[in-house]
Amino acid sequence: MIDFKEKMEEELQGQQYIQPKKKRLGLKIFGFFMAFLILFSATVLISSEDASKVPILGKLVGLVESSDRRIKGESDDRINILLLGMGGKNHDGGNLTDTIMLVSLQPSTKKVAMMSVPRDMMISVEGMGWKKINAINALAESEKEGSGGEAISQAVSDVLGIPIHYYVRVDFQGFVNIIDELGGVEVYVDNILEDYSYPISGQEDNPNYNSRYEHLYISQGWQTMDGSLALKYARSRHGLGIEGSDFARSKRQQKIIEAVKNKLLKKENILKPAMISSIASELRENISYNLSTWEIIKLWQNFKDISSDDISNYVLDNSANGLLVDGMSEAGAYILTPRSGDYTEIQYLVHNFFYNKEKEENNKKEEIKENTQVAKVEIKNGTWINGLASKTSIDLEKNNFIVLRISNSSQRDFNKTIIYDLSYGAKDEALKYLKNYLQADVSFSIPDWLAEEIKDSNNSEEFEVPDFLIVLGQNASNISF
User: Model confidence over 274-284: pLDDT tens digits?
Assistant: First the structure.
């Protein structure tokens, strides 16, 4: 197991520890991704039905449709794009990537998978050592301007074990001028946002400490935001309650980008040459990417009509069943590290974005349907195989089981998986499925050592007894989930 703490201490001097609230964020906005594609250049600011009104766009679309050129990753039926959002050059730490998202596209099925990556996750970077993932772009830029996108793409590729074909890097400061050019945007605020410590630009060194910050308050409901307010809404770090987490912050940023896209594509705006010219100028200043024009348009043409049902959303987080855990360096910096000690669990999830979807569609007869028994399970890894419990958890959840907890068993010498039926026959249909799926033996009595282990873990009034306790054996590693 990797000892993260020893490897990263030197890299984290001077950072402050901030404990975020724990919250699982469901990312359900494909517009976040499409907005970037649309906003890359003025030629992609309008949809295909309006292409005839703009000769240049019509010609470009025609060239793409008649071309047999393939986008990177298309031959493998998976295109991976890294979306990066930065605060901007006028802000402290403006090159830190506060928003990091992996978007994977499957051309054959028009399926999309999106995974949000928290900025505090630690990764190993060749030539740099252990770094917070959000610092890689800034470090590379300090060495060579314009190199940050490639640097973080390579680092993420190494960690996840997949090629990152393209990256899109956005300076959120540019959206201030774009939003003002559009006359503001409409945003639905899910929760009141109240932040007593929002930094005032230019006042970072004010000797009167209290004058460095303002009190930010945004009411719940639909709000019309100008560029300045929209940026504050997207960047607020110290909101009260559930808005104080990085996961909530990421969601707010997506809302702003979605709102910009919706306003920009209104018919009364898309055919205003002066506005388009002004916005295109802002984009040239604030967006960098490694796609060519024909690749942008081909992606837009191929994926512009997908529905929300075609999108799978994932998030790496520190929730009860999340793949990351909280940590703190000796210097006092808050960090997130892989629960298993390495990246095998995370890589398994990423590699199976589309495999699991296809499996669900092709094995409907074997799955537990929504109108059948719903069972709660607890999974223990009875082997020394890293990530086995997490892999099993992911697949059982896909098949409608509720996974209450996963952990390592105190005994790790199981050759074959055992299911302990704590429902005592009340959920026989679910048990039959689990037995066949996991190639497991079944027992209706729990051995003393395991009963004691469960008793020791039951130290909370919220402890919930599962229907089935699964102790994974060596044979589970041979199962093709």
Answer: 777 777 777 77
